[in-house]
Amino acid sequence: MLTGDLEDLDVLIVGAGFAGMYAVHRLRGQGLRVRAYDAADDVGGTWYWNRYPGARCDIESLEYSYSFSEELQQDWEWSRRFPEQPEMLAYARHVADRFDLRRDIVFATRITSVTFDEGDGRWLVTTDRGQRVRARFCVMATGCLSVPNVPDLPGADRFAGRVLHTATWPAEDVDLAGQRVGVVGTGASGIQCIPLIAQVADHLTVFQRSANFSVQGLNVPLDPELARERKAHYGEYRERARRSFGGMLLRQNRVHALTASAEERDREFSARWGLGGFEYMAAFDDLIFDPAANDLAADYVRDKIRQIVRDPEVAATLTPTDHPIGTKRICVDTDYYDTFNRDNVTLVDVRRDPITEITETGVRAGGRVHELDILVYATGFHAMTGALLAMDVRGRGGRRLADHWAHGPRTYLGLGMSGFPNLFVVAGPGSPSVISNAFVSLEQHVDWIGDCLAYLDAHRLTTIEADPAAEDDWVADVNAAAARTLYPQANSWYLGANIPGRPRVFMPYVGGVGRYHKRCAAVAADGYTGFTLSA
Ligand code: NAP
Fold it and tell me: Can you tell me the mean pLDDT for 64-89?
């Protein structure tokens, strides 16, 4: 229905990545009038934007995918163990076609403000194209890694060459052949693109502020026998992932590293290194909890770096010593360390030789200018809260979300906030989110929200809102879960520590996906305890 120029929806969804896409499908399927908005001109979210060379997922394709449709999961064929960005985007597009999602998605449109109207209990939403929409419910499927971080380096706009960011890489081919390329940043994005850029560039200069732990990916073509077996029992495998710690089917060894013998440890770490990927951190059960156990796992990788990198000084610079392994998201690479054995690659330690300015011709660090044709920022994101705070979100009494979260994100179960009725967040802060398999987490959230909206309608209720006390308790639970681990010891984006001036608060819930799902289900089964429901 149109009221003047004001259109009425049941549910407005922000974002058409995998979370928003599933929200469109699921909520529309229960008879709600829904619409999603996205700044991109097609579906895919993070997989739409992150097109840099080497971009790929670090979770296995047979797990990093939707489970809501048996036909979809049976029909779709993955080509490799870890899906590359083009394949993830093709999958997103296939899902959009298959379930006819685009008819309820508005592309190339950014949401600018989201304001709760206490008069009629609805959200008033505006876009950068001047549209105004009214909705009973808002679902924020905004992604955790969607607002790029561009460092504020002196002279940045003087550079005469081309500037790129891994998170906004152009869709058309970028010709790096024969170019002098600089990459700032050695997180997962840098670690994936550096080996490929080195293969084509005339010269690559890597500006590293912190060395990161990376394990080999071994991204082999997917074994058809494995895919067949998995598909034959997909339901069981998906259920196991939902009950697991991280939403993945890792072979978690229940033995503690500190009780194992030196030989057992060595055997296990080598076997895990040989498996590739996140299996490494599942080698023992205490690695993310006990600093001494963690050191053993870290030392094994540090030894690997020394074995791979021929120049001992370069190897030392690449060796992480400032955080426990796994407390920043461990990177999964193809030939990352070996790339530094190439003659056309230079590593600059910007802790020792800080970047003092960007000049017209390159980057000045340690008193010398590194001449460049192309400068690539692989400098990450305003993670977890960035997209939510980029919109002007105002709840009851005009309270800004930015004020509610001034000291770090506060949520109840990661799903809702007190003072922001009928507004849900999908897989954001306060939930397993980035510590888990995103598909497991986003499907659980969207299903929970769908069930909740059906419950409200069935009971002739109009409003659901988190109680302040429940929110306080949940924030304490999120902090307590993090404090039981080594995660808070790293200056990671999990804590907002990558952005100067942000409050240092551990944002995701690390108490485990299985435990979290049970808690959300119990809250719903008990009539939404911790939320106030009203007619
Ligand atoms: P990131 O992990 O935040 O890494 C950013 C890098 O830029 C860090 O090395 C950081 O150094 C450096 N940096 C930032 N500001 C700088 C400055 N002013 N000067 C010098 N260096 C600076 O970001 P990301 O690599 O894009 O990855 C973010 C997350 O996205 C990953 O952890 C992962 O969850 C996800 N991701 C996943 C994949 C995958 O599936 N394989 C691939 C890419 C991204 P410090 O460490 O010192 O801050």
Answer: 98
- With a 6 Å cutoff on the Cβ, whether 493 touches ligand 1 is yes
For 261, counting Cβ atoms within 10 Å of its Cβ (0-12 exposed, 13-18 middle, 19+ buried), the class is exposed
Q: Which fold has domain 7-147+382-534?
A: FAD/NAD(P)-binding domain (3.50.50)
Cα separation, 274 vs 65, in Å, equals: 25
Answer for the pair 189, 394: CB distance below 8 angstroms, yes or no. no
Nearest protein CA to atom 6 of ligand 1, as residue? 185
The pLDDT value recorded for residue 3 is 46
Q: What are the tokens at 151?
A: 């460092």
- CA triple 298-301-307, angle to 5 deg: 145
- Closest to 75 (Cα-Cα) out of 65, 84, 85: 65
Give the closest residue (by CA) to ligand 1 atom 18: 151
Is the minimum distance from the CB of 193 to ligand 1 under 6 angstroms? no
Distance 149 CA to ligand 1 centre (A): 9
- For 218-273, write each residue's pLDDT tens digit: 999 999 999 999 999 999 999 999 999 999 999 999 999 999 999 999 999 999 99
pLDDT of residue 5: 67
CB neighbour list of residue 291: distance below 8 Å, 6 or more residues apart? 324, 486
Cα-based distances in Å from 215 to 218, 265, 281: 9, 17, 10
Task: Give me ligand 1 centre to Cα 165, in Å.
Answer: 11
Q: Is 58 in the pocket of ligand 1 (CB under 6 A)?
A: yes
Closest to 508 in 3D by CA, of 407, 387, 386, 411: 411
Q: pTM of the predicted model, to two decimals?
A: 0.97
User: What residue ranges of the chain are covered by domains with CATH 3.50.50.60?
Assistant: 7-147+382-534
Using one digit for the tens of pLDDT, what is the confidence trace for 266-306? 999 999 999 999 999 999 999 999 999 999 999 999 999 99
Tell me how far apart the alpha carbons of residues 134 and 38 are, in angstroms, rounded to a whole number: 17
Sign of CA dihedral 73, 75, 76, 81: positive
Q: Nearest 5°: phi and psi at 12?
A: -100, 130
Predicted local confidence at residue 7, as pLDDT: 87
Count CA atoms within 13 Å of residue 318 on its CB side: 26
What distances in angstroms separate CA 9 from CA 110, 119, 125, 178, 214, one per listed residue?
17, 17, 11, 53, 46
**pLDDT range class, residue 6, cuts 50, 70, 90:** confident
Nearest residue to 189 via CA among 85, 304, 91: 85
